[in-house]
């Protein structure tokens, strides 16, 4: 089911991952996904998908000093086409330096792993909904209220709601019908620290950045004071306190 959206100018542009060693994590994910890494400024490394994947975001790895302390509230689910392909992806991840992770998931058909810095991700069994997503099936966000959080992100990204699984999961899909889902999964864990993985949105080239920020705040975001230096982008939080950035127009 789709929801009606008021047109907004911002769109998803990055999934950002804090890293002690950005080059190590970027190499891991580029090799696992079959994408390529590009070195940017200030120690940032971006991993980009081929156009055929339908993924129009960058995976951005940025250097931080803080160690990973808790389970991430945002993680990637990888798609597989057959049971054999799923097993191959798991084996490849382990060969590249990943490890198995036990989050209390029990006996499930997907496999929970962690990358070399402990960031959790899942290798899913084949599912029809993810048959055309490319390497990444979904960006999955923990949510106390999936419907509320999905509604907010639908408004600021222009991605309509395309899937619901009771009150447990709500999924957004790009209007093009390509690339990964953005999904919100019910989870009652309390957010205790700054998220190590976050999303970036940006208005299009030529737009007014301040107006875009005002629009996103009006949609339900709140300013976030992280105590850092003045930056050209604006750090906000969504209705459940997840940090994200409104970047400059691009």
TrEMBL record:
Cite the SUPFAM superfamilies for this sequence. Glyoxalase/Bleomycin resistance protein/Dihydroxybiphenyl dioxygenase
Q: Which superkingdom heads the taxonomic lineage of this protein's source?
A: Bacteria
Q: Where are the transmembrane segments?
A: none
Q: Where is the Glyoxalase-like domain?
A: 15-124, 139-247
Q: Which InterPro entries match?
A: Glyas_Bleomycin-R_OHBP_Dase (IPR029068), Glyoxalase_6 (IPR041581)
This protein is called: Glyoxalase-like domain-containing protein
Organism per entry: Amycolatopsis bullii
């Amino acid at each position: 089911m789709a929801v009606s959206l008021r047109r907004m100018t911002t769109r998803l542009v990055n999934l950002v991952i804090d890293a002690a060693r950005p080059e190590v994590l970027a190499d891991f994910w580029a090799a696992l996904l079959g994408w390529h890494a590009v070195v940017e400024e200030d120690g940032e490394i971006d991993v980009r998908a081929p156009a055929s994947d339908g993924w129009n975001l960058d995976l951005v790895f940025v250097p931080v000093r803080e160690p990973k302390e808790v389970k991430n509230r945002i993680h990637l689910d990888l798609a597989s086409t057959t049971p054999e392909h799923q097993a191959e992806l798991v084996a490849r991840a382990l060969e590249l330096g990943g490890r198995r992770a036990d989050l209390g998931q029990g006996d499930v058909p997907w496999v929970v792993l962690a990358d070399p810095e402990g960031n959790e991700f899942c290798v899913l069994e084949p599912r029809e909904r993810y048959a055309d997503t490319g390497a990444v099936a979904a960006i999955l966000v923990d949510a106390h209220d999936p419907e509320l959080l999905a509604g907010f992100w639908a408004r600021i990204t222009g991605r309509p709601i395309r899937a619901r699984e009771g009150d447990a999961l709500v999924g957004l899909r790009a209007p093009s019908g390509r690339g990964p889902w953005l999904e919100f999964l019910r989870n009652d864990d309390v957010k205790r620290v700054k998220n190590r993985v976050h999303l970036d949105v940006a208005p299009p080239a030529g737009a007014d950045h301040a107006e875009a920020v005002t629009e996103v705040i009006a949609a339900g975001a709140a300013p976030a004071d992280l105590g850092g230096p003045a930056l050209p982008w604006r750090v906000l939080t969504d209705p459940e306190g997840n940090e994200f950035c409104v970047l400059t127009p691009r």
